[in-house]
């Protein structure tokens, strides 16, 4: 058995872990974000309302996020490789069974719960492992992996449209099931990494004490609020474009444009974040605020050019946010706790993920258009940007610690009324 490394290798086999992360993003969130292409077909096939069909995406997203601590705890106990490969099989099986559904309840159980649980076992362990392999180039590595989300959405949106037109929605889901099996490659690429300072994981693997730390508590709350509005365009953008009078392929092109700009922004944001031109906490606030603005402006779009421009703004800001968020989390909690923290943060996001899509669908049914859906989604994301501004590192002078995680403020701590000396460590969170 090899001795623990003093620091993350910042390369080497880590680049294959980046490839694993790229595939994991492509075959989880990339597929999830592309399912909106089948939205109208499912509404018509099951004679259901928009809110009822929206629950399919909401359940899949919420299950994936809520069960993420199960995936991270299992990976710390049994290793990431077998857990991710089991998740690949379960998620593919869920989409396969969904193609034979004759009622919405079957869709909820298969495409919602089973597929979402498989994604929970696959996604969080991969991203947590990736965080451990990099230090100085962590944001760049995260950007490369997270780009799979946008690039796969860019490719899958027109592909699912083509499959739905030629094979109907059932055939499109069968093809998606076969594609999802490639998550097995993600698990096969994972190699355990032992670092000095790693904690023993003989217990259940749930470090709920993280929620008592101010930085992680604020980060998790902001992520939960953001999740309530973040996926609104990927549920409603394609049908919104068709309601504007755009053709099916024009509407799919708008979704693809958002996905492509999302992917490119993740790459660029990774390099920018590593240069430390602006503190990561301030980048979080900036990106989430721009995401909120794009959502709030969508109801004003009246043409293909308007929708395309706002889709590009949304993709750029939302993609940048994802890279910065995954890059800053290890610096908030420390590398030794990042796998567990990733699962717990995704669990917190499940609250917003479960609320957002059904609420936006309900508002569409209630008002007859998409205006309220985008406005409410944008409001949630705007609130998230305000919460991120409460991170200790947003104002470098607000933190007295010198980099020791035990010295960081907790929810139960009482701040000193006396002036505290500025430190250079706080701004690095």
General description of the model:
There is one protein chain. This protein has 16 helices and no strands. The protein has helices at residues 14-27, 29-34, 39-45, 50-66, 68-78, 80-98, 104-133, 138-180, 183-189, 214-230, 232-243, 248-275, 280-297, 304-333, 338-367, 371-388. The two termini are 33 Å apart. It is mainly α and 429 residues long. The chain is globular.
Task: Please tag this protein with its features.
mainly alpha, 429 residues, single chain, disordered C terminus
The biggest beta sheet is recorded as: none
Shape: globular
Mean pLDDT: 81
For the secondary structure, the number of strands is 0
- Radius of gyration over C-alpha positions, nearest whole angstrom: 21 Å
What portion of the residues fall into strands of 2 or more residues?
under 5%
The number of distinct helices, counting runs of at least 4 residues, comes to 16
Q: What is the distance, rounded to the nearest whole angstrom, between the alpha carbons of the first and last residues?
A: 33 Å
């Amino acid at each position: 058995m090899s001795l623990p490394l003093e620091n993350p290798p910042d390369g080497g086999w880590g680049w294959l872990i980046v490839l694993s992360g790229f595939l994991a993003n492509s075959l989880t969130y990339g597929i999830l974000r592309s399912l909106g292409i089948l939205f109208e077909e499912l509404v018509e096939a099951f004679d259901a309302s928009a809110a009822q069909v929206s629950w399919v995406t909401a359940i899949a997203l919420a299950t994936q996020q809520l069960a993420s601590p199960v995936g991270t705890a299992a990976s710390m106990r049994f290793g990431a490789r077998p857990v991710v490969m089991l998740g690949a099989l379960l998620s593919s099986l869920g989409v396969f069974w969904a193609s034979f559904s004759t009622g919405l309840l079957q869709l909820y159980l298969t495409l919602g719960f089973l597929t979402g649980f498989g994604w929970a076992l696959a996604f969080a362990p991969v991203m947590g492992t990736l965080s451990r392999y990099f230090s100085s180039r962590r944001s760049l590595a995260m950007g490369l992996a997270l780009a799979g989300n946008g690039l796969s959405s860019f490719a899958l949106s027109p592909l699912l449209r083509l499959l739905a037109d030629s094979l109907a929605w059932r055939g499109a889901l069968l093809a998606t099931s076969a594609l999802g099996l490639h998550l097995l490659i993600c698990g096969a690429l994972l190699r355990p990494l032992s670092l000095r300072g790693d904690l023993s994981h003989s217990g259940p693997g749930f470090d709920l004490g993280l929620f008592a730390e101010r930085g992680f508590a604020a980060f998790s709350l902001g992520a939960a609020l953001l999740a309530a509005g973040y996926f609104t365009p990927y549920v409603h953008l394609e049908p919104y474009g068709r309601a504007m009078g755009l053709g099916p392929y024009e509407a799919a092109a708008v979704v693809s444009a958002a996905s492509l700009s999302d992917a490119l922004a993740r790459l660029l944001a990774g390099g920018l974040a590593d240069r430390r031109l602006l503190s990561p906490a301030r980048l979080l606030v900036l990106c989430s605020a721009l995401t909120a603005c794009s959502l709030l402006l969508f109801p004003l779009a009246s043409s293909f050019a308007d929708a395309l421009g706002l889709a590009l703004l949304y993709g750029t800001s939302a993609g940048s946010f994802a890279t910065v968020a995954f890059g800053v989390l290890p610096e908030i909690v420390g590398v030794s706790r990042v796998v567990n923290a990733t699962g717990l943060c995704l669990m917190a996001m499940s609250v917003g993920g479960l609320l957002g899509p059904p609420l936006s669908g309900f508002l569409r049914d209630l008002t007859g258009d998409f205006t309220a859906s985008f406005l409410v989604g944008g409001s949630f994301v705007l609130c998230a940007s305000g919460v991120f501004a409460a991170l200790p590192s947003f104002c470098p002078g607000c933190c007295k610690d010198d980099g020791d995680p035990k010295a960081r403020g907790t929810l139960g701590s009482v701040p000193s009324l006396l002036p505290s000396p500025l430190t250079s460590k706080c701004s690095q969170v």
